[in-house]
Write a structure and sequence with these properties.
Layout (H helix, E strand, L loop, with lengths): L1 E2 L27 E3 L5 H13 L5 E6 L7 H4 L4 E4 L3 H27 L12 H5 L8 E6 L2 H4 L5 H14 L5 E6 L10 H4 L5 E3 L5 H8 L20 E5 L6 E4 L5 H18 L21 H8 L6 E3 H11 L1 H4 L4 H8 L7 E6 L6 E8 H17 L1
Parallel strand pairs: 2-6, 3-4, 3-5, 5-6
Antiparallel strand pairs: 1-9, 7-8, 8-9, 10-12, 11-12
Helix pairs in contact: 1-9, 3-6, 10-14, 11-13
The structure holds adenosine-5'-triphosphate.
Keywords: ATP-binding, Nucleotide-binding
InterPro entries: FtsK_dom, P-loop_NTPase
Protein name: FtsK domain-containing protein
């Protein structure tokens, strides 16, 4: 992307505003783009910039299904175009992998000595150490509302994306979401509120403006309503802790995108980092697609059990679906429920081996039931 004001920070296809190696705070962030004015071009540009770093694993989703991101498919770790059932199942399986990856990375970071990792986050040096597996992961989703409004998986997409937006940046994982309908249904507030980088092309009114750029931005004079219809690719860019700037994307049409993608692919071949989709591999959906954590918990916690220890839930889940929950413990349950806004707290229970009562971390059945009801209401509404 190109700044329009004097100190333009652009030109080579790498030295652009969004850098992926944490040298700038703008690096690991979510991005929101809006409305038939160059949104897909902008998202494609961001992904191409990321792709030119051969360490970066690219996940590209074009939910419109027109193949706008097909250039990225040549090098992407995960890629899908379309919104049919099999496309959605591919995506949910890939996102579950990312949820696991978030956990793995958090553990790796926690385990590193202070002098190697003083800030408890991925640095360019750490991202380059192949053995740690902390390379940048950049996920781009065009027309993301399709995921969040999905009648079956909408809730889970929301939970995982919220987790990615909140914890991803420190762990080297960037989620870039693009939508032309920035309302709370298309873009859940847990996600929009936590997005730290925003890009808003022309919009029609104050509500959409503030949905993308942040509360009160219109009142403060940051108004993407002022752009003309001819201002393709021009929008307000708001980075974390920085003043809003008017920037323009670089015009990269589909043939130009192919040329850049071929270069990015060649760099990956040379570096030995071509993986996943680019090698003809898909995420393993066999074990995970049928699993739905909330419903599985509801199935293993009886209606008369008001509160249950997390460790008990973990054991029962593993019995239900060993291929999905095998090896889970109380902490796994807490981490998996956190993105749904369900906390584990001290609950009274009885140890089945000793028969003694004690307070341990656990869940309240009502919290899980309420979350399922919330999702069902959404399914009915869609
Ligand atoms: N930086 C740019 N400079 C000049 N023209 C641009 C730029 N970016 C996009 N355009 C033009 O705007 C058109 C629409 O762009 P794009 O397909 O990205 O829109 P969109 O917002 O995704 O719309 P839709 O949702 O309808 O696909 C492109 O075909 C291109 O001609």
């Amino acid at each position: 992307m190109r700044r329009l004001d004097v100190d333009v920070a652009h030109s080579s296809d790498r030295a652009l505003l969004l850098r992926l190696d944490n040298r700038e705070r703008e690096a690991h962030t979510a991005l929101l783009l809006v409305k038939s004015m160059g949104k897909t071009f902008a998202l494609r540009e961001v992904l191409l910039i990321a792709a030119l770093d051969p360490r970066a694993a690219i996940h590209a989703y074009d939910l419109k299904g027109t193949g706008d991101l097909s250039a990225l498919g040549e090098l992407a770790h995960r890629y899908r175009s379309g919104e049919d059932d099999e496309d959605i199942e591919y995506a949910i399986a890939a996102l579950r992998e990312l949820r696991e990856e978030l956990r793995r990375r958090a553990k790796v970071i926690r385990g590193l000595p202070r002098d190697v990792c003083p800030e408890n986050k991925v640095t360019p040096e750490l991202a380059s150490k192949k053995s740690l597996g902390l390379h940048p992961i950049v996920i781009g989703v065009d027309e993301c509302q399709v995921w969040f409004e999905h009648p079956v998986y909408g809730d889970e997409f929301e939970a995982i994306c919220t987790d990615l937006v909140k914890r991803g940046p420190a762990l080297g994982m960037v989620l870039c979401l693009a939508t032309q309908r920035p309302d709370a249904k298309s873009l859940p507030t847990g996600i929009s509120a936590n997005a730290s980088t925003r890009f808003c092309l022309k919009v029609m009114g104050q509500t959409e403006n503030d949905m993308v750029l942040g509360t009160s931005k219109y009142k403060q004079g940051i108004r993407a309503t002022m752009f003309a219809w001819a201002d393709k690719g021009i929008g307000y860019f708001v980075g974390e802790g920085a003043d809003a700037r008017i920037v323009s994307t670089v015009y990269i049409d589909a043939p130009a995108a192919d040329v850049i993608a071929q270069r990015a692919r060649a760099a990956r071949v040379a570096a030995g980092t071509l993986t996943g989709h680019a090698l003809g591999e898909a995420p393993d959906s066999s074990a995970t697609v049928t699993a739905n954590l909330l419903e599985d918990i509801a199935a293993v916690v009886g209606p008369n059990e008001e509160r249950v220890w997390s460790e008990t839930v973990a054991v029962r889940l593993a019995e239900l679906r060993p291929e999905v929950y095998g090896g889970w413990n109380a902490k796994s349950v807490a981490a998996a429920l956190e993105p749904y806004g369900i906390d584990t707290s001290q609950v009274w229970g009885t140890d089945p081996t000793t028969g003694k009562g004690a307070n341990r971390k656990g869940i309240r059945r009502v919290d899980v039931a309420e979350r399922i009801a919330h999702r069902n209401r959404r399914r009915e509404a869609s």
